[in-house]
Structure formats: C-alpha cells, structure tokens
Amino acid sequence: MPSEGGSYVSTAIVGTPGYIDPEYDKTSVPSKKTDIYSFGIVLLELISGRPAIIKITKESPCNIADWVHLVTAKGDIKMIVDPRLQGEFDPNSAQRAVETAMYCVPVSSIDRPTMNIVVKPNEDDKTFEPKNQHLTYFEVERITDNFQKELGRGASSIVYHGHLSNGTEVAVKKLSPSSILGSKQFKTEAQLLTRVHHKNLVSLFGYCDEGSNMVLIYEYMAKGNVKAYLSGKTEAVLSWEQRLQIAIDAAQALEYLHNGCNPPIIHRDIKTENILLNEKLQAKVADFGWSKSMPAEGGSYVLTAIVGTPGYLDPEYHRSSVPNEKTDVYSFGIVLLELISGRPAIIKITKENLCNITNWVHHIIAKGDIRMIVDPRLQGEFETNSARRTIETAMSCVSFSSTERPTMSDIVVELRECLKIAMAHERTNNLEEDHDSAGIEAAMTAEER
C-alpha cells in the first residue's frame, strides 16, 4: 500500500476468478478490503465445502456468495453447512460464521469490516453489528403474534413467546417504555451479545430499537430457569448428576467470559434465575444487563454503583465498589450451594430471622454431617465423595477474601472430576443391579426345572 499521503497507481488486475473483489475489478485499485472480500469467499468455502464458483448446470456457474444469499433467503442456514458434517455442528456457531463471511463480501468495500473485527469484534466498534439482527417493531409484532403469549415479567420488562419466519421458537424481551435504567441495561446486553458467542451463553437472534420500543430476541429455553426447579415450582427433581452438569455448563460460560474474551467480561448478576435450561437441560447463562468489561492492562477501574442481587453479592465488591472476575466466582459459589441443597440464597429460619446459605452450610459442616446439606428431595441418591468435593468447591468460591477464591478454570476442572466420580458410582450400581437381576432369574429358572 502507498505511504500516508501517497496515491496508488492503477495496474493490471490480478487474482483468481471467484475470489476477486468486484470493486477492485471495476476500479483496478486494491485496498485492505480487497483481501477481506477474498477471505469471505474462503470462509464460505470452509463452511459449505463448496468451491468459490459453483456449477449449478454446465452453462450456469454461480458465485458461492450468490448461492449463500439464495439459501439464506429460504431461512434454513443448516442447508449452507457442508453435508459431510452430518449435522455435527452448533447451529448458533454456524449462523455466526455465515454472517461473518457474508459481511466480508458486500459489493461496496465500505460495508466490509476490518480483519481485526473479523478475528475478534471489539466492544467499542459499532461497524460490526450483525445487520440481519436489527428488526423493525412491525417484525417483532409479527414474531410474537402481536405479543399474545407472555412467558414472564421482571421489574423493567415482559418476556413473550414468538416464532421466527423459519419456525424457530424465540423469547422476546420487551422493555417497559418508562424504564430509564432498563434502557441502559438493554443497550449493554444488545452490544455484548452481538460479539460474544459460547454454547453456554443464551444467543441473541435480534433486537429492535425504535424510539421507546426496545426489544431483545433470544433463543427459546424450553425448561425455564434453574430457580424454578430448585424452588419446587416444577414437579421434576433434578438428579445429582444433572445438577453437576448444570453447574459445569454455567461455569464454562463464566470461564469463557473471563478468559475467552478480550477484554475479560464480568457478568455481575450470576444467580439461579439467570441460568436457563433448554429442552435437553443444557444450561446457558442469560441477562447481561449489568455486565462490565474489565479495564485494559494498565488501565484503572472507574467506580460505579454496586449492582447485583442480595444473597449473591460478593462482600468484597460490596465494600470496595470495584468488581473483578472473583466477583462472579463468589456468586457462582452461592448458585452451586443452591444446586447442592435445593435451598435459596437467603434462607428463612423464621419470619424475622433470615440466614445466608453460606452461614447455614458452615453451621452444618461444623456438626460434621455433610449429607444434611444435600437436597432431601434426592432421597439419598447421590455419591457421598462427589457431594463432599462439590461442597468444598462451593465453599472455596465464597471465601470472604477474593484472593482465596479459585478461578473459573479451576472450578470447571474440579466440577468435572466431581461428575466423573458420581458417574462411576452410578455405573457400578447399575452393574450390581444387572448382576443381581441375572442371579434372581437364574434361581427362578432352576426352581421351575
């Protein structure tokens, strides 16, 4: 490229058919965005397994970008992904990858992102907002059938059930027009969820921001939130292994926010109500309205109002007003104690006497019987060593000093080990039951003879 202030001398167009930037082809003047167009074609090839120029018929070749446009218009993004994968891919990851590729191949170079944004979108960069995620209020009304079915409501919003044009179920959160604080949270969440993607984070499908109409459209989580299961609002009782897997899912989400994002992100409102379950009971962390990016290395944190939910709030953060990754670790520890015990973060001993779950657990540990901590609805169906290690992990998370708490990476490793112990115990029990059943059948056969 010419140095600053210099001009580019037009030369012969070079490159490979199918990969050549149409703007460069027209002007003979390449730029950085020329490479971005070509990279977008390469990315589409990687996604689809198809060549840059597809032979529809012998006489009718088609550029891969045009083919993807055609398939996308039909609404089924799975048709774009290489069929040789036999469906072994995450639809949200695939959708994001296709969107990224398609942002690289607009005819006009000014509509393409920079390579920095393609690799890792920056929170402060507004040029990479997924354009097909922005919806009009009219489209939102169509998706929700004019807000017919309410799923739930919070202090500043109501959540409705809806369907996208391809039939995908969604949850639609509509902000109350009178909520000033909610408006700030809405913008924080919309901006964050367009740049972070993980299998254990609830995906954002779209948003609407038209005057007082602020709407976020998420993937639909059919089984609701973890709090409903632990409070007895649902009849189903989560098994010990299911509880551990939910804990691992949530821990992996936080590990990604802390270690997989640059700069790291603190959620600041981890609680059972913000951990949602899909049809397969896979857990995903939701509600990023209070989330905050950590300052860059060498930067300082600006003190802001303390946010979070009573019972889950890190005492050190409450005292200093400065959050960090260990703020989320404390809240996660409370969630883990709830999963173990089936009790809420703040336990009512009497009408006037409330007790934090950590103090309640400390009191029982002092008596020496950790089985009293585990949810009685499990009726003793859990592996004791797995339960003990899980309780120890939870209590390490809620240490008063943040320096004594583990990282989310440490927690993920430990919880996986707890689940491994529980699963091994379950397999042993099943083998013993099979052996006993075989013995009984053999005895009955002998008697019959």
What does this structure look like?
Belongs to the protein kinase superfamily. It comes from Vitis vinifera (Grape). The chain starts with 21 loop residues before the first helix and ends with a helix. The protein has 449 residues and is of the alpha+beta class. 42% of the residues lie in helices and 12% in strands. The chain has helices at residues 22-27, 32-48, 64-73, 91-104, 115-119, 137-143, 180-193, 226-230, 240-260, 315-320, 325-341, 357-367, 384-397, 408-448; strands at residues 53-55, 61-63, 150-153, 157-163, 169-175, 204-210, 213-219, 265-266, 275-277, 283-285, 292-293, 346-348, 354-356. The chain has three domains: 22-119, Orthogonal Bundle (Transferase(Phosphotransferase), domain 1), CATH 1.10.510; 133-219, Phosphorylase Kinase, domain 1, CATH 3.30.200; 226-431, Transferase(Phosphotransferase) domain 1 (Transferase(Phosphotransferase), domain 1, Orthogonal Bundle), CATH 1.10.510.10. A hairpin with a 3-residue loop joins strand 3 and strand 4 (157-163).
